[in-house]
């Protein structure tokens, strides 16, 4: 996070707008595979937070990332 932001705050990790940050960390740094369908939805979304949250809370849509 420090490579992306000068100051890392709670909002960068846990707020609605910050939700894509831990998602990207798990994908890019931890190497957790991203479902291609989810990747397309995240890339196409005006606000990827909604896509990440939608997949996180819906058991039918969950993936490892």
Number of domains: 1
Poorly predicted residue ranges: none
The percent range for strand residues is under 5%
Q: How much helix is in the residues? A: 40-55%
> N-to-C terminal Cα separation, in Å?
18 Å
Shape: globular
Spell out the helices and strands N to C: HHHH
Number of helices: 4
Please tally the β strands and state the result: 0
What's the mean pLDDT score? 80
Structure description:
The protein contains 4 helices and no strands. The chain has 65 residues and is mainly alpha-helical. The chain has one domain (10-57). The longest helix has 10 residues, at 48-57. It is globular, with a radius of gyration of 12 Å.
Topology readout:
Layout: H1 10-14, H2 20-28, H3 36-44, H4 48-57
């Amino acid at each position: 996070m420090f490579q992306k932001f000068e100051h890392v705050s709670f909002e960068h990790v846990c707020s609605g707008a910050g939700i894509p940050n831990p998602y990207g960390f798990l994908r890019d740094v931890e190497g957790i595979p991203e479902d291609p369908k989810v990747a397309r939805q995240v890339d196409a979304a005006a606000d990827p937070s909604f896509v990440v949250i939608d997949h996180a809370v819906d058991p039918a849509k969950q993936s490892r990332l």
